[in-house]
Amino acid sequence: MKFLVIGDVVGRTGRLALQNNLSKIKDQFKIDFTIVNGENSAGGYGITGKIYEEMMNWGVDAVTLGNHAWKKDEIIPYMESNPNHNIIRPLNFPEGSPGQGFKIFTHLNGKRILVCQVHGETFIDLPLDNPFQSIDTKILSIINDHDIDYSFLEVHAEVTSEKNGIAQHYDGKFTAIYGTHVHIPTMDARILEKGTAYQTDAGMCGDYDSVIGMEKTEPIRRFVEKTPGGRFNPAQGDPTLCGVIVETSSDGLSESIEPFRVGGILSQTKKQ
Ligand SMILES: [Fe+2]
Ligand SMILES: [Fe+2]
């Protein structure tokens, strides 16, 4: 099977990248299943039920979150009143947090797909359980006991070392492990020793003529002057869609992983 994994969608520009390109990409590369990170999709902070539903209508199958999960807190009652939603938040959020840390999907072809997300701890100011313990206690037994054909672990984390450490530790246990959150794609896509596909960060969907998706004036001013100021707004230039395409192998691991960048000012990987 072929999976498309798309990094953090930032604001309207990121949503446009998705809306304008997703169905073409799915047709062109015969994508079977699409995972998108939506934590920045509503004005750069959080997600709403309306935006989630738009993404599903554009052909997304699963939407992941991150540290900005609840910035638009209307998403919490939305999830409660739509219990079959396909939104996945970090599984190591504290016990009792709203939402779900993983979901099992059954594809039309009968294959069972597990999608889960874990949050890294380094340089993250959030109450979090240990990501390794959360994966060990909440995910590994499910992969073994529930007849899962393909499993995807998203590591939403600040530092490359923590993402690398998690990926190397769980190599061979997941079809793919990939990072989100830093909004810049890394160029280390590869199949790890035991067959798990990996890229440290999938990159963002949005305008790269920015500071990680935000209009650049205010972030630069804050770096230079070191004082608080106005709010950050998503940049509104040319949208780039950024992610990876993973092709699985029959043993539940991966045959290949390829970065994907289309539109906007980044160097392009796949011409449309
Ligand atoms: Fe993000
Ligand atoms: Fe994030």
Could you describe the 3D structure shown?
By secondary structure, this protein is an alpha/beta fold. 25% of the residues lie in helices and 23% in strands. The protein has helices at 11-28, 49-58, 75-81, 131-138, 140-145, 160-169, 217-225; strands at residues 2-6, 33-37, 62-64, 87-88, 102-106, 112-119, 150-156, 176-180, 190-191, 197-199, 241-248, 254-262. The chain is globular. One fe (ii) ion binds at residues 39, 66-68, 156, 181. One fe (ii) ion binds next to loops.
Please tag this protein with its features.
single chain, 272 residues, alpha/beta, 6-stranded mixed beta sheet, 7 helices, globular, binds fe (ii) ion
Task: Tell me the layout of helices and strands.
Layout: E1 2-6, H1 11-28, E2 33-37, H2 49-58, E3 62-64, H3 75-81, E4 87-88, E5 102-106, E6 112-119, H4 131-138, H5 140-145, E7 150-156, H6 160-169, E8 176-180, E9 190-191, E10 197-199, H7 217-225, E11 241-248, E12 254-262
Parallel strand pairs: 1-2, 2-3, 3-4, 6-7, 7-8, 8-10
Antiparallel strand pairs: 1-11, 5-6, 9-10, 11-12
The structure holds fe (ii) ion (FE2) (2 copies).
How would the global form be characterised? Answer: globular
What percent of residues adopt helix (DSSP H or I)? 25-40%
Average pLDDT metric: 97
Query: Would you tell me the structural class of the helices and strands?
Result: alpha/beta
Assembly state? single chain
Number of helices: 7
Q: What hetero molecules are in the model?
A: fe (ii) ion
User: Helix and strand string, N-terminal first?
Assistant: EHEHEHEEEHHEHEEEHEE
- The percent range for strand residues is 15-25%
Radius of gyration: 17 Å
Largest β-sheet summary: 6 strands, mixed
